[in-house]
Amino acid sequence: MARRRSTQRHRAPRRLSPPAPACPWPQLQELIASGGTISIGAIHPIPCAAIANDEHNMLAALVRRDKESLVDMLKRLDGAVGKALEHDEFTDEINPPPSSTWP
């Protein structure tokens, strides 16, 4: 008895999802993925600031510079978060350093 040829259905070609674009702020992405937060906006009397913190510490607090774009400020914030996570160097442009002398 002759074998009957199977009829194969033509499938649509598989389409792969395009690769995800590289994140321009990998340290901020890691911070948020691990439960940290970033806040951007006015903090009176500062017209624009960016603050990054994890569940325990403020890692970075930046003041937006004159004519600095938001993208550039986020790049600086990403770098400051990287310093905090990798070297325990915290950046604080908002709060004055504690005085080393007692009144």
List keywords for this structure.
4-stranded mixed sheet; 4 strands; 103 residues; alpha+beta; 2 helices; 25% helix
Description:
There is one protein chain. This protein is of the alpha+beta class. The protein has a domain at 26-92. 25% of the residues lie in helices and 22% in strands. The protein is built from two helices and four strands. The chain has helices at 26-33, 70-87, and strands spanning 37-43, 46-53, 58-63, 91-92. Strands 1-2-3-4 form a four-stranded mixed β-sheet. Strand 2 (46-53) and strand 3 (58-63) form a beta hairpin. Helix 1 packs across helix 2. The longest helix is centred in the C-terminal third of the chain and has 18 residues, at 70-87. It is globular and about 45 Å long. The chain starts with 25 loop residues before the first helix and ends in an 11-residue tail after the last strand.
State the gist of this model.
Helix content is 25%, strand content 22%. The chain has a four-stranded mixed sheet with strand order 1-2-3-4.
